DNA sequence: TATTGTTATACTCTATAACTATA
DNA sequence: TATAGTTATAGAGTATAACAATA
């Protein structure tokens, strides 16, 4: 997989790049995001907005840049996303009293309910569906392997 | 990972979404592509152009749409990519004699050399570096798990 | 009528630079 | 001087519609 091609793959999977870990990761990431976006659609948010909401829920009110840096979104891109969340009535831009340059992004009651009741179910269902072909042990293994890869390559990454 | 958050993760990895397989896959895919793009840069091609070249090399001359469908690139996007490869002298647009609507994209001698001598090395080095934290057995496991996921979700995928 | 490649167009995502208000 | 948020802008990547040549 790393270098050469003489790999035995299922018939319909005998595409040229099916031995490439990069191609596989890219495909898998696209699939998960697509399915997650479809599942989130009825609730009026996108996967990235989900990331913002859950980040606030777990870490408390934070500035836009703090949130963006945790989930890999530029501060200029955060502006539009927070605009959208604010228009949806899910997030409020509250000025940080200690530093009035920044906001303390806060979840609305509707967002609290969404994050703690609805979204965990959507998240679980989507992941269960996507990971269906794997056993519980295999799922744990997969997460462990990818987490180690991402951690190891986090520094070097150009990104 | 599938649903709940009470996961034990390394300190610096205790980000809100580090238990989400979708977030991890997305991060990993970004890292690999970034590193691969950096490695390919000196050779004048991008990861997607690499995909086109290797597809022609393995399956022989094909139409732009045939190639695009195998690596997930729209036919309108293929036009620009092939333009670029043609300007670089790596690919030639030869009319298919049996169906003059389509081309039989062909590798130039320079591309043949690149694909068979240079790129396998670049590919191997990039993957070895990215997969460094995993043992050989773990690498095989990873590819197997992701391949099964991608295959299983290929049909349902909205894309 | 249908299909391949093409062009024009638009939409999303992202990033850079410059501005404002605060520090 | 530096930082958080904002705006304008531009660049990738992608997708839709319409067209010419060919089937």
UniProtKB/TrEMBL annotation, chains A, B:
This is MarR family transcriptional regulator. Pfam families: MarR_2 (PF12802). It comes from the Bacteria. The keyword Metal-binding does not apply. The keyword Transcription regulation applies. Residues 18-151 form the HTH marR-type domain. InterPro entries: HTH_MarR-typ, MarR/SlyA-like, Tscrpt_reg_MarR-type_CS, WH-like_DNA-bd_sf, WH_DNA-bd_sf. One of its GO terms (biological process) is response to stress. GO terms for molecular function: DNA binding; DNA-binding transcription factor activity. SMART domains: HTH_MARR. Keywords: DNA-binding, Transcription, Transcription regulation.
